[in-house]
TrEMBL record, chain A:
<keyword id="KW-0067">ATP-binding</keyword>
<dbReference type="GO" id="GO:0005524">
    <property type="term" value="F:ATP binding"/>
</dbReference>
<dbReference type="InterPro" id="IPR003593">
    <property type="entry name" value="AAA+_ATPase"/>
</dbReference>
<dbReference type="GO" id="GO:0016887">
    <property type="term" value="F:ATP hydrolysis activity"/>
</dbReference>
<protein>
    <submittedName>
        <fullName>ABC transporter ATP-binding protein</fullName>
    </submittedName>
</protein>
<dbReference type="InterPro" id="IPR027417">
    <property type="entry name" value="P-loop_NTPase"/>
</dbReference>
<dbReference type="InterPro" id="IPR003439">
    <property type="entry name" value="ABC_transporter-like_ATP-bd"/>
</dbReference>
<keyword id="KW-0547">Nucleotide-binding</keyword>
<feature type="domain" description="ABC transporter">
    <location>
        <begin position="5"/>
        <end position="235"/>
    </location>
</feature>
UniProtKB/TrEMBL annotation, chain B:
<keyword id="KW-1133">Transmembrane helix</keyword>
<feature type="transmembrane region" description="Helical">
    <location>
        <begin position="94"/>
        <end position="116"/>
    </location>
</feature>
<feature type="transmembrane region" description="Helical">
    <location>
        <begin position="429"/>
        <end position="448"/>
    </location>
</feature>
<protein>
    <submittedName>
        <fullName>Uncharacterized protein</fullName>
    </submittedName>
</protein>
<feature type="transmembrane region" description="Helical">
    <location>
        <begin position="380"/>
        <end position="398"/>
    </location>
</feature>
<feature type="transmembrane region" description="Helical">
    <location>
        <begin position="205"/>
        <end position="224"/>
    </location>
</feature>
<feature type="transmembrane region" description="Helical">
    <location>
        <begin position="454"/>
        <end position="472"/>
    </location>
</feature>
<feature type="transmembrane region" description="Helical">
    <location>
        <begin position="493"/>
        <end position="514"/>
    </location>
</feature>
<feature type="transmembrane region" description="Helical">
    <location>
        <begin position="165"/>
        <end position="193"/>
    </location>
</feature>
Amino acid sequence: MEPVIRIKNLRKFFGDKMVLKDINLEVHKGEIIGYIGPNGAGKSTTVKIMLGLIGEYEGQVNILGQDISSGDINYKSRIGYVPEIAEIYENLTAREYLTFIGELYGMDYEVADKKAEKLMELFGIQNVYDARISSYSKGMKQKTLIISALINDPDILFLDEPLSGIDANSVMVFKEVLAELARNGKTIFYSSHIMEVVEKLSSRIVLINNGEIAADGNIEELREKSLEGSLEEIFNNLTGFNDHQEIAKEIVATIKGVE
Amino acid sequence: MKDYKVLKFLDRFKGLFKKFDIDYKAMRKILQVKLLLDSRRVATVLQNNNSKNDDKKDKNNFISSLWIYLLLGLVMIPLVLIGESYIFQMSIVFGIFMFFMITSLISDFSSVLLDLRDKEILLSRPINSRTLNMAKVLHIFFYVSMISMALMGPSLIASLMKKGFLFFILLLAEIILVDLFLIVFTGLIYMLILRFFDGEKLKDIINYVQIGLTIIISLGYQLIGRLFNFIDIDKIQFSGKWWSYIIPPIWFAAPFELILNNNRQINIIAYSLMALIIPITSIIVYIKLMPEFERNLQKLRNVGMAKKSRSKFSDIMGKIACRTKEERNFYRFSTNMIKNEREFKLKVYPNIGFGFIFPFIMLFSLSVGSKFSEVRDSKLYYNIYFILFAVTAMVQFLDRSGNYKGAWIYQTLPIDYPEYIYRGAVKAVFINLFTPLYILVSIIFLIIFRIRIIPHIIAAYLSMMLATSIIFKINNKDLPFSKAFSVTEKGGLLPAFLSLIIEGALFAAHYFVAKASYGVYIYIIMALIANAITWKYFFRVQGNH
């Protein structure tokens, strides 16, 4: 079967600095990819390239069988995206924002409105549907973003730290939703620093470090490779980080002002 | 969502947009949202704006800032009506018109063109970059055409009554053409910069180009008058020079001469053709290049290598100028914010261009016909007061920031006296932005007028300092960097008039006191005392604290 995402020898420079070094990746229908790596490893850059937000890369990126550098943007109508630091028109109400996004995806106003309202209700925030987003709490804002990414029933979901600020109950619901979506043949690209969630949720984990793929496989395969138990330990091992205790001690000493 | 009349009007040109590969439906949606957003005041972090349904209060306060343009428009009526020497009259009219439009575009609307937020929200959706860029252009066009109507509306009505329908239609058509041309022209310049530069340099270049453009336009505007020989008022001779081909107001004046006066001179025909062909070509080129524009915009996000830059000058001055530790802290904070605040720079730097060029423009136009030795010994060095144009915007936009949400720190930090915040911030702009400019202009003035004017330079500097505190007092009551920039609130004319009045008063004081022997030293002492008072009391603002 044709992979949903196929990345071949992807390289990206910012100025002279190579931030992505020959990324190769194939993602298939129904997979939940846990995309992890230290800060600044190149995770968001990869995702932004796939969304066409960053251009001028080397290599090939195919999404849903289409080379995204062709200039044809139709593939975007089958994608949902929750960015880590999301810009949002905060002076709109959720109704205004979500119907706007829905219509940009080519939906009818009424359909988008109904769907958005229903999803707001299911996420437990229908009471603020007509309030300005600027008055929302972080979790409400995050839920609105998630709804805006799901409203077009996308085939691929890019989620960058989607659970931040969301209460525990909704987290449980949302995790179940993702599993259900994957069972329905949707592909999910999940980026997070919370290793427990990634470990539980993902069918496959891709670890990126210094612009390179350091590990790729399901959790069992990763365990065998690095001889560690939890994903957190695997992460530390593969990114070559093992002095956390010393650093912690030093931090506390610095806070206290001890030389 | 509210449907706007403008959009319904736009619907008529649907077919045209489709021809250029623009998704009209999506563009219309984006514009609708933009107009709605403009009508909503951005809630600041410092006010508790949690009211849920203030939609009914949606109101675009842009229109109320237009009256000053309307006033100017009324003053322009005689220029249109006075005679039939169209190439002369209309060059002046278009000169004034284009000057105000382009300066407004450079300082008020650059941030719309260079906006990155839209890109992040919209381009991950199936929207092509051409559609987004067109929405931006039309968004600007909407405001630009309102300013145009305020500025040229009176002339249009007057011309319809006195000059006939043909004149009216020609003027109207050209106004629209000029507006489009200027937006596209600004866009093309940014496009060029975006293509060739990257990283930190790009951000600097944009601001230098803004300053440069302001200077060039102010100068070019001066040149129009030089094209005519005033033999007597009925017989103004147009003396076309080779460089009149690069003065756009001349192009737009020519069709009036060509059509209404049946003037078939070869250069008039050439100008008329240029008035038609150049704007249309630019528009087509711009539309072709739109995707590149949006793509290169991303470069503004690219951060260059962090360089540790701390100016010694700024540090030393800060130590001298700020007495308390708290004030010095806010001085340093504001200095760093100003240095990196993209939107602040976009709005303020064009005014630095004005501040630089106006003393010289005034100096030269007042010394036309005199010998250099006469100028040298004259009192024309007082023109240095025109540098004040630079101060107004600096103080006016000090409460704005692209990162206005960071202002929550004011509330959580244990700060007793908000006056330290204000005073530190105003000192930061005065020292880091204004003072270097003043030194530069002073050096040139010293070369022209020699060292005899040093006391006056010092006196004028103290006047500027005084003016800054006064401008703060009348303008600014919000904490620095605590409000968002918005398209509908304009900088520009009204504050410029206010500072003109302040400048006039201070200049008069300086001038008359200096007439006495050693008067200039008396003025310096007076200004020092006045400064001590204003800088002590004017910053005691009843804030949110």
